[in-house]
Amino acid sequence: MTLPRLLLFASCVALLSACTTQRKPPPVVTPRPAPPPVAVAPPPPADWRDAPITQGTWSYGATVAGAQAAFSPGVGEPLLALSCRRGAGQIALSQAGAATGTVPMTVTTTTLVRAFTAAPDPATQRLTVALPARDPLFDALAFSRGRFMVEVPGLPTLYLPAWPEVGRVIEDCR
Fold it and tell me: Nearest CA to 169 among 84, 93, 103, 43?
């Protein structure tokens, strides 16, 4: 090749390269954040005795009016209380919760299932059932094998251990 042709070729290549547009980088795609996982409640166990025990512990206290066993998750109001009303010869079973009217309450032990109508107490935000101290339910609670269950529609089901505090209130009230 001759020099003029080589210069012509080089200038054409330079001109052509100057005419091309620069490539733009592809747009950066930011991934959308994944939605937070939805907490799915585990299905209820086939047998209530297989459900995990409600977190908390029983405590016992006695006064002149009677004894009380209270199941609390720690600090705050008890989730369930058994209170002796010695003067009336009754034991009140009360669960934390509010309602505008009476609600059904079901107590299940290993030997007995009983349904009651619980009355709300707006002052204490509790649902209460009062029974004679010699009611067979209390024997079933005291001798239930390891646990018993309290159900009120609209409130968490309580799976409570059958600890000695329960039996002590019952015996103190009889």
Answer: 84
Dig out the tokens for 26 from the structure. Answer: 């592809």
Contact 97, 126 (CB under 8 A): yes
pLDDT at 66 over 90: no
**Domain ranges across the chain:** 64-173
- The set of long-range contacts for 114-120, using a CB threshold of 8 Å and a minimum separation of 24, is 118/152
Q: How many CB atoms lie within 10 A of CB 85?
A: 14
Count CA atoms within 13 Å of residue 140 on its CB side: 13
CB within 8 A of 76, min separation 6: which ones?
A: none
15 pLDDT above the threshold of 70: no
Both ends of the chain: CA-CA distance in Å?
A: 123
Q: What integer pLDDT is reported at residue 101 of this predicted model?
A: 87
Does the pTM surpass 0.85? The reply is no
C-alpha distance from residue 140 to each of 34, 41, 113 (Å): 50, 30, 9
The model's pLDDT over 81-103, given as tens digits with 9 standing for 90+, comes to: 999 988 888 999 999 988 888 89
Q: b vs e for 161-172, b when ≥16 Cβ sit within 10 Å of the residue's Cβ?
A: bbbebbbbbbeb
Could you please state the CATH topology (level 3) that the domain comprising 64-173 is classified under: Immunoglobulin-like (2.60.40)
DSSP code at position 113:
E
